[in-house]
Amino acid sequence: MEKQKMDRKQEKFKILKFGGTSLGTVERIKHVANLICNNELNLVVLSAMSGTTNSLAEIASLLFNGDIDGAQRDIECLKSKYIEVADKLYLSAKSIEEAKKFILCSFSSLQTIAQSPISSKQEKIILSQGELLITRLMHIYLKEIGIVSVLLPAIEFMRTDRNGEPDIHFIKRNVCKLLKHYPNNRLFITQGYICRNVSGEIDNLQRGGSDYTASLLGSALNACEIQIWTDIDGLHNNDPRVVSTTAPVRTLTFDEASKLAYFGAKILHPTCILPAKLKNIPVRLLNTMTPQAPGTLISDTADTGKIKAVAAKDNVTYIKLRSHYKIPCYRFLEKIFHCFAQS
Ligand code: ASP
Ligand code: MG
Q1: Is residue 23 part of a domain?
Q2: What is the per-residue DSSP string for 309-324?
Q3: In the chain, which stretches have pLDDT less than 50?
């Protein structure tokens, strides 16, 4: 027991983030459960099952527009999807009951919110349900197959500051404090994307923000590696939806990866590289469907000096502006950027 404690102290966490498509079906949830049970010290970050956050956003938008009936219909439809997942995922009646209790509770809170038009505060609560659901379903599944895991509520440590940026010190202090309660556990699960804001309300890190959760936690815990698991074999040298003969790029520097993500590579959220870069934590992009494939390793040791990949942004508008020199150049630029920031 004492030895185990000592080992845990010296060992570094690995952060494993799984995206919605990796968790899109019952079979895939089971497959992810297998991947994370490798007896390493893992903190697993899960995104909502594919389609869920879009459905929740649609429900919120119906409510903003006062379409209560439409929203209630969509809630009912999403609820039956989750009930079906629970029926198929578990073997024991006890697990099914535990999962359904959680699902019904989550959907009844949605039904209550959806009785009248909503505020943006309530929208955030609606959007948070997908990650809360999948992490609980996974936790119950692991228990059913005899694996001990700890479910960490992200809203206890993920927080943004008054500028809406992650509060790095708060995150580090609070995730470490929480982990101290479990000195002998090796498998932790938490929600990507969701957080609290500076006023303590439920909020999120923007769409696709689970990658960001993973890298912020990697940085907070000084992890040995951050793994982003998706449904493609690493970052490709071009967009596979447009170019048929693409291939995965094996190594990238942090700067190359963030530029590619910023300019259109969908595999990675653009904000997620910086926390890893600042702590020099390697980020590995892996494919849930072929876990043995090498994927892409993003680190500070990758070779530079050659073109590795091409990314493109769609729907770019080219605007040409001319100043009449009535105001100083910096004022002119300020006005332009102000307009863009508001649009
Ligand atoms: N589930 C959230 C979304 O779809 C967060 C994520 O996928 O990273 O935007
Ligand atoms: Mg998602």
Answers
A1: yes
A2: -----SS---------
A3: 1-6
